[in-house]
Each structure stands twice: as structure tokens, then as C-alpha cells.
UniProtKB/TrEMBL annotation:
Keywords: Glycosyltransferase, Membrane, Signal, Transferase, Transmembrane, Transmembrane helix
Signal peptide segment: 1-20
GO MF assignments: UDP-glycosyltransferase activity
This protein's record includes keyword Transferase: yes
Family statement: Belongs to the UDP-glycosyltransferase family.
Species classification: Eukaryota, Metazoa, Ecdysozoa, Arthropoda, Hexapoda
Chain ranges passing through the membrane: 473-496
Domain of life: Eukaryota
Listed name of the protein: UDP-glucuronosyltransferase
Length: 510
């Protein structure tokens, strides 16, 4: 037995040595909630013997082996909470401007950095470049200069400008727009709404960020191909979703769903919190709106509605809340400004999660099988909340509609034992995979490096739009049909013209 262990260890060390890749990670966006999804994956790549160089705003606090930082920290303000609480078309339009400006600035900051410049000046060789695919394609230019294949990463569903370049069909009839409600069963109004915003974000991106990024790259390099072309050539896209939660999407083989890898093994809870949850007779409801609904920004009537509802429930409440006290000091509520969310959701006494439906929280909830009340505020939360409801993980509530009565109604639904049993079963389906999300993400990364001379992009991403939509076929067939009908009409009128006088003549001769 021992010998076999040593042999296995020896072989795995050997394999690691043989396959050890030199990997560059480029994370030019300074959003904290984005980067922290990727951390476990990056650490695991290093752990498996690959040599990582990571450009980001978040250098490791304690150095780990094989993981080298190129830190951009301090070069831009870190975004923790970029959204306002109110939601309207205007805030979505503004979000467009925000994304474009950040995407433009991030590129300039990235290319200006001396350590980043050293990479191309020293002609560093990488087997694969990991690029966050979010609001900029600047890093694709860098990867091109370094001559390495690219693996794209997201911490969310596809952005509107990803569909065309990866050849993923976009159809407002069943494809969610991440910023909007409606899920996969939109009304006619919602389809018009998402068509408008899909085009708004796409054209804004094409004509601002993409062009600005190309200009920034042109300052340093002579012959970088158009970024749209480089985006089409991304080898693999690792999408942070999974069909069990986000619904079955139609993705080409080089767009892989790897959602779930950030969820860590639960750790022991802090003593007092553990006691509070352990000793709950009817279970615990966990409330967190991330950093979104800060105490100071919560409208008073909504806060009163929430407190009013939860203090009527027999369950204990654990609430991520930044202030020392809650109005009224309800005694069944435990508040803290920092809470180990994943460890709480893993506790068997936690029976529901009242959440703003960030991708991370929703993923942790399905991982641990905890029913969700989803109250989306901004960003990709509306489409996540729709997915939560459609998958059966929970129910959806509009922030504007929140009242004590409505909340109690929603809690009644998710606290029903039958509902919880179904969510546990959904969680079982979530875990039923040929390989873990982490193994899958790492496999496709290594695969991209091993097969860099091959392309697996769908032909759908290469054909021009008029062919993709068959507009030319419609035009040709329409033209032929028109010609046939027109000549038919001509013939008929010729026949009738030539026959009418005869009839008249006949009449005359009578
Ligand atoms: C690993 O990456 C570091 C930092 O980029 C680099 O200095 C080193 O040469 C690399 N090691 C190997 C074996 O490629
Ligand atoms: C991939 O292509 C490059 C350039 O054409 C070539 O040098 C290399 O040997 C190829 N790799 C494999 C594994 O065939």
C-alpha cells in the first residue's frame, strides 16, 4: 500500500514537472468581486506545478510557491460597490458609460506599467495567457505580442459584446440580458427592452472601448490585428456559469461552463456565531446584500419592512450589517459587518438565504442547497435572480415591491419543507458532474496550451452577419419570387389586353 502511494506521488510529481506551463494572467479590471472568483483557480494552477505570473490590482498577501505578482495596486481606485440602489433605464445607460470608461482607462494603466512593459521587452515566453473577459480586450493585444494562446475567464454570464465574437447565438426570445429581468421567458415588452439594451451596449463597446484600446495598443506596437479578430481567436472561454443554475445555453465547444470552482471547503465558524446557529430551534435565515445595500443607503421604509417581516418569523436571523445596531434591536437577529458567508451557508441549520443574487452567493447557495429569496439590485443580478427562480433554487422579489406582507409570503414559500427538499435535490444535480468545476477549468486551460496550433472556434463566429442571419438568401429568393410574380402579372395583363379587343370586336360584329 505504502509503496503504491509513493509511486503515485512520484508519478504525479513527474507529470507535473513534464506538463508545467508558464502562464500569464492579465486582470486589468480593479473590481474586487471579480478577481476573488479567480483566486482559487489561480492558486490551484500554481499548486499543480504551473509557473504563474499574475498582473492584477490584488497581489498575494502571503506569497505562494510558483505564483508571481505584477501588482497594479494603487494605480486605480478599487471598486467594491459601483452601483446605486435605485434602478431605472438611466442607471443602466450610465452603467454603459462606466464600463466603457473603465475599459479604456484600464488598458492605458496596464500598458504604462514598467513591469508589464518588461514582459514584451524581455520577450517573455508563455504557454498560455489567461485574460479576464469583461469590459476590455486590451490584454488580447498583449497576448498577441507575446505570441501565446488565450484563455478567457469571466466571473459572470456573457457580456453583450461576447455573443458575436464567440459565435454564441443571441436571441432576445430566450437569452437573458444580464442587466434586465425576464429570464428565458420574456414578455414582448421585455424582448423589445433587451433588444434595445443589447444593441446599446454592443455599439457603445465597438465604437468606444474597442477603438480606444486599439489606439492605446498602437502607441506601443506596430501591427496588432483588430481586437475583434483577436477576440474571435480566443482559444477557450471559461464561463462562470453552470446550466443547472443558469439554464441550458447554446455554447460552442470552446466556451466551457466552469461555474462553482470558487466555493471552498467550509471552515469552522467563529465561536459565538456557531453557538447562535447551533442552538437555533427552527433554523437560521442568512441575510446579505453583499456590499450593495449598505446601512446608510437603505431606504427607511424598506428597512422597516424587512425587520418587521423577519422579527415575526420563528427562525433566527444572521444579517451582514455594517452598523452596531439595528433599529428596534430585534433579539432573534445576529448582526456583523463581516460574516463567513460560505461557512454559514454550509451549516445544516441554515434554512434560507435572503440575497441580492450576486453570482458568487447564488453559486454558494446551490452548492450547499440553501433556498434563496433573490432581490436583485444592479449589474448582473437581475438575470441571476431570474435563473434562481427558473432553476427552482428560490424565489424572486423586486426591491421596489418589498413590503412586510410580501416578504412574509416569500419566506413562507422557501421555508416550506417540500421546497427545501427540492432545493437539496437540485444541489445534488449541481454536484453530479464528470469532473469538479476546478478540475474542469484547469483541464481546459492545459488543453488550450497543449493544442495551441488548433482552433476550435465555431464557424458561426467567422461568417458575416448577413450570412449568419441568411439575409442574402432571403434577398435572392425574395428577388426570384418577385420576378416570377411580376412576370406572371405581365403575362396575365398581356393576355387580357390582347383578348379584350377581340371580344369587343365580336360584340361589334353582332
Ligand atoms: C516563472 O515566472 C517567473 C516570473 O515571471 C520568471 O521569472 C521565471 O523565470 C519563471 N520560471 C520558469 C521556469 O519559467
Ligand atoms: C505548432 O506550430 C508551430 C509554428 O507553426 C510549430 O513550430 C510547432 O512545432 C507546432 N507544434 C506542434 C505540437 O505541432
Amino acid at each position: 500500500m505504502k509503496f503504491i502511494h509513493i509511486l503515485v506521488l512520484f508519478i504525479s510529481v513527474l507529470i507535473n514537472q513534464v506538463l508545467s506551463l508558464n502562464i500569464l494572467g492579465v486582470f486589468p479590471y480593479q473590481g474586487k468581486s471579480h478577481f476573488f472568483v479567480f483566486v482559487p483557480y489561480l492558486q490551484e494552477l500554481a499548486n499543480r506545478g504551473h509557473n504563474l505570473t499574475v498582473i492584477s490590482y490584488f497581489p498575494q498577501k502571503t506569497p505562494i510557491q510558483n505564483y508571481h505578482d505584477i501588482s497594479l495596486a494603487g494605480k486605480a481606485e478599487i471598486y467594491e460597490d459601483v452601483f446605486t440602489i435605485e434602478r431605472s433605464y438611466w442607471t443602466i445607460i450610465q452603467l454603459g458609460f462606466f464600463l466603457m470608461r473603465a475599459g479604456t482607462d484600464n488598458c492605458v494603466t496596464l500598458l504604462e506599467d514598467d513591469n508589464v512593459q518588461n514582459l514584451w521587452k524581455s520577450k517573455a515566453k508563455f504557454d498560455v495567457v489567461l485574460v479576464e473577459a469583461f469590459n476590455s480586450e486590451c490584454a488580447l493585444g498583449l497576448a498577441h505580442v507575446l505570441g501565446a494562446p488565450v484563455v478567457g475567464l469571466t466571473s459572470h454570464v456573457l457580456m453583450p459584446w461576447h455573443y458575436e465574437v464567440y459565435g454564441v447565438q443571441y436571441n432576445p426570445a430566450y437569452v437573458s440580458n444580464l442587466f434586465l429581468e425576464g429570464g428565458t421567458k420574456p414578455t414582448l415588452y421585455q424582448r423589445i427592452e433587451r433588444t434595445f439594451f443589447h444593441n446599446y451596449f454592443n455599439y457603445l463597446y465597438k465604437f468606444t472601448t474597442r477603438r480606444n484600446n486599439e489606439k492605446a495598443l498602437a502607441q506601443y506596437f506596430d501591427n496588432v490585428p483588430p481586437l475583434e479578430e483577436l477576440a474571435r481567436n480566443v482559444k477557450f472561454m471559461l464561463l462562470y456559469t453552470n446550466f443547472v443554475l443558469s439554464g441550458p445555453g447554446l455554447y460552442p465547444p470552446n466556451v466551457r461552463e466552469v461555474g462553482g470552482y470558487h466555493v471552498a471547503k467550509p471552515k469552522e465558524l467563529p465561536k459565538d456565531l456557531k453557538k447562535f446557529i447551533d442552538e437555533s430551534e427552527h433554523g437560521v435565515i442568512y441575510i446579505s446584500f453583499g456590499s450593495m445595500l449598505r446601512a446608510a443607503s437603505m431606504p427607511k421604509d424598506k428597512l422597516e419592512a424587512i425587520i418587521g417581516a423577519v422579527s415575526q418569523l420563528p427562525q433566527r436571523i444572521v444579517w451582514k450589517w455594517e452598523e452596531k445596531t439595528l433599529p428596534g434591536n430585534p433579539k432573534n437577529i445576529y448582526i456583523s459587518n463581516w460574516l463567513p458567508q460560505n461557512d454559514i451557508l454550509a451549516h445544516p441549520n441554515v434554512v434560507a438565504f435572503y440575497s441580492h443574487c450576486g453570482m458568487l452567493g447564488s453559486t454558494e447557495a446551490i452548492h450547499h442547497g440553501v433556498p434563496v429569496i433573490g432581490m436583485p439590485i444592479a449589474g448582473d443580478q437581475p438575470s441571476n435572480a431570474a435563473a434562481v427562480e427558473e432553476s427552482g433554487l428560490g424565489v424572486h422579489i423586486n426591491f421596489q415591491d418589498v413590503t412586510k406582507e410580501l416578504l412574509l409570503e416569500k419566506f413562507k414559500i422557501v421555508l416550506n419543507p417540500e421546497f427545501r427538499r427540492k432545493v437539496k435535490d437540485l444541489s445534488r444535480v449541481w454536484h453530479d458532474r464528470p469532473q469538479s468545476a476546478m478540475d474542469s477549468a484547469i483541464y481546459w486551460t492545459e488543453f488550450a496550451a497543449r493544442t495551441s496550433n488548433y482552433s476550435f472556434r465555431t464557424p458561426a463566429s467567422s461568417v458575416p452577419l448577413y450570412q449568419y442571419r441568411s439575409w442574402d438568401i432571403v434577398a435572392v429568393l425574395g428577388g426570384i419570387l418577385f420576378a416570377i410574380l411580376y412576370s406572371l402579372k405581365l403575362t396575365i395583363s398581356l393576355l387580357t389586353k390582347s383578348s379584350t379587343p377581340q371580344i369587343k370586336r365580336k360584340h361589334k360584329t353582332k
